[in-house]
Amino acid sequence: MQILNVENWDFKTILKAKGIPLVTASAVLVGGVSMAASNSVAESDKIISGVNYDGKDIGGMTAAQAKNFFEQSAAQKMKPLTFAYNGQEFQIQPQEINWTAKVNDAVDEAESYGRGKGLLGNFGEQVSSLMGNGHEVKLAAVYDEDLLNKKIDEIAAQVDTQPVNAYCNLHSNGMIEPIPGVIGKKLNRDKLAESLKDPLNNLTMPNSAINLEPEDIEPFIRTEDVANIDTILGEYTTSYYPGDRGDNIWIASSAIDDKILRPGWEFSFNTTVGPRTYEAGYKPAGVIINGQSAIDYGGGVCQVSSTLYNAVLLAGLTPTERTPHYFQSSYIGYGRDATVADGQIDFKFRNDLPHTVYLKAEATGSTLTMYVLGTKADLNGQTISIENDGSSLYRTYYKDGQVVKDEYLHTDQYYTK
């Protein structure tokens, strides 16, 4: 059968030459082209002209030739996934995530264009293709998302860094040295995986390395938290004997060391120190339970809260919850104690100063010193003393040797043993 070359037809020229009415001629031509094109395609085992992929015409190829073509095209596009960060490069090989091109689907799509849609459907696609409105075949791919996520986790393990808290060194001569914090890095694994989905499925991965952009992770204690700390606002020392009680004092004071309170924050002793249990390392020592002397885990921890209470008062911070002991304590003056008990009695205070304060604790084995470091300007040139009139406790503020504020704190009543 002779195949009509519709690409060279000029309908107006034919009509003028033959003198055939436009409608009649068009019907004849359409019918003729439809029959000729459809029949010729149906008999052919090759892809029709005008079908293309990635700018290349694959018309005239057999299925086997098209498959080879798509496999080569996929091989050119499916290179290792390359990522760059901070002078390092990381790669994911296609086989590591089962990244596979859907070659057979692309061949089927190319072969089926202009076929299998009935006379008019086939004719429309064939003529459209022959007249220059070709059909672009899609070559897609699939991959294993779980395997990709595992590879991203491996890369993240080399990219992620933990933040480092800023802190203050307190030297023996009283000098304070603020040490800046370090911002950590964390790769957003879900975001990266999502950004790769479309390029992997559509074989549009870039040829160059993808720059990784991990997110910043601020340390809990930031550089700006310690930047203005330049003085000891308040400090207080008590004495104790080494032994199990002393070990408990060391554990509790260590939990408070290097803690901060930003302006407006409230400190909870029980929350910060945690339960005084065997599992936490505490030992049995002397305590007061319901007005009775006893031995229990964490004995001695009240000396830490009481010592801290006095440093807090001298620093100009605001006590918000404080309870005296049942009996007068031997290690601290009248009315200057602050007892605590797991889940029952807490010691709390708030930072109402303009800047962050920083807590330091030193337990040497015989003395416990609690420090409140802060910004000298926050006290506006004032000094603070704690005074007891025999029954009540007061906090007195001085400036230039004159009393500027006298603050009543509390009146305690202790039981005798």
Structure write-up:
Strands 13-21-20-14 form a 4-stranded antiparallel beta sheet. Strands 2-1-6 form a 3-stranded mixed beta sheet, with no helix packed on it. It is α+β, with helices and mostly antiparallel strands and 417 residues long. The termini are far apart. The chain has helices spanning 11-18, 22-43, 63-77, 103-112, 118-130, 145-159, 189-202, 223-226, 244-256, 269-273, 301-314, and strands spanning 51-53, 56-57, 81-85, 88-92, 100-101, 135-136, 141-142, 167-170, 176-179, 184-186, 210-211, 215-217, 231-239, 259-261, 266-268, 284-289, 292-297, 318-321, 348-350, 357-363, 367-374, 383-388, 392-399, 402-411.
Summarize the topology:
Layout: H1 11-18, H2 22-43, E1 51-53, E2 56-57, H3 63-77, E3 81-85, E4 88-92, E5 100-101, H4 103-112, H5 118-130, E6 135-136, E7 141-142, H6 145-159, E8 167-170, E9 176-179, E10 184-186, H7 189-202, E11 210-211, E12 215-217, H8 223-226, E13 231-239, H9 244-256, E14 259-261, E15 266-268, H10 269-273, E16 284-289, E17 292-297, H11 301-314, E18 318-321, E19 348-350, E20 357-363, E21 367-374, E22 383-388, E23 392-399, E24 402-411
Parallel strand pairs: 1-6, 3-11
Antiparallel strand pairs: 1-2, 3-4, 5-7, 8-9, 10-12, 13-21, 14-20, 15-19, 16-17, 18-19, 20-21, 22-23, 23-24
Helix pairs in contact: 2-5, 3-4, 6-7, 9-11
